[in-house]
Amino acid sequence: MHVPDGFINAPVSVAAGVVAAGAVAVSLRGARRELDERIAPLAGLVAAFIFAVQMLNFPVAAGTSGHLLGGALAAILVGPYTGVLCVSVVLLMQGILFADGGLTALGVNISVMAVTTTVVGYAVFRGLVKALPKKRRSVTVSAFVAAALSVPGAALVFTLVYAIGGTTDVPLGRVLTAMVGVHVLIGLGEAAITAFTVGAVIAVRPDLVHGARGLRQKLQLRVGGELVDATPAPEPQLAPALSPSHRTRNVWLTGLAASLVLAGVVSFYASASPDGLEKVAADKGIDAKVEEHAAAGSPLADYGVEGITDGRLSGGLAGVIGVGATVVAGTGVFWAVRKRRTDGTEDTPAAVTSPGASA
């Protein structure tokens, strides 16, 4: 759903840029509370993973493809404020290095793809988690529904922006129907990816999933006719436990390896069909005034490396470079945010609990 230059007029693009800048500023402040000793090392990796999976366009219908937007996934894994920053870093890397998403439309893209998907996805997720039984399966089900709704939500916001500042005269009803319709289908793919990823992390490190914290039900005993909290017995250790930093490093290395494989190898087999916005734009004529990307001459434009004629090698190398650049940029941003915490105390690790446990 990357909006190119020329779809939205200059005044509305500037206004969207102001909104996006405000959202990023608020997120920078909010992320200081989210980036504890567990989340901070992984936030840059989440951004890199989203970059990698966004290269994997999947077919939906009628010659149309879709790809992960990632707002709901990021919000559930590392928190809503940090999630906005993760997707924003991805969009910035894509726009500057790969000429994907217009530079003058960067504010629109952040507002639609980062802010909207994160806010809608996390709001739906939190509502469902509170309503459903406090079990591991509830987290993955909530993640699925939240991600599925976040994508048509983003399509709806784009349609609103187009209604205010679109550069072509296309009936709004046609744009709305086409955008929401195709992105409902894309949302199902987003939901499957999000639920699978969240479920995989919960299976090995539930304490690393921001949205799954505090879901363990307390064991209660009836004493004198009243229910009182019982202190759970410590789990027996059959082998020396790894330190928290060592376990986090293992998760980080596994996630980075998966991102490199997805971007460097699996991306070659992604669908070549236009994504939802590209298809709607071509069919409805809202791309009549599209402009050439300012970074069209980039050596990595269109996710290929200039001078390498082999398509598989060119695309794979571009993907690997993108993952590396994103994890470095993201880690730098989140490290700086983490350093600016103003509480004056070291974070105390919260108790590691499994949302799958119940009395």
Nutshell version of this structure?
The chain has 359 residues and is mostly helical.
Instruction: Compute the number of helices.
Output: 10
Q: What is the CATH domain class?
A: Mainly Alpha
Query: What's the number of structural domains?
Result: 1
State the total count of DSSP E strands: 4
Main sheet specs = 2 strands, antiparallel
Low-confidence region ranges: 235-241, 344-359
The CATH topology assignment is Arp2/3 complex 21 kDa subunit ARPC3
- Cα shape: globular
**In which order are the strands of the major sheet placed?**
1-2
CATH architecture: Orthogonal Bundle
Averaging pLDDT over every residue, what do you get?
88
* Gyration radius over CA: 21 Å
Q: Strand fraction band?
A: under 5%
**Oligomer class:** single chain
Q: What fraction, in percent, of the residue positions are helical?
A: 55-70%
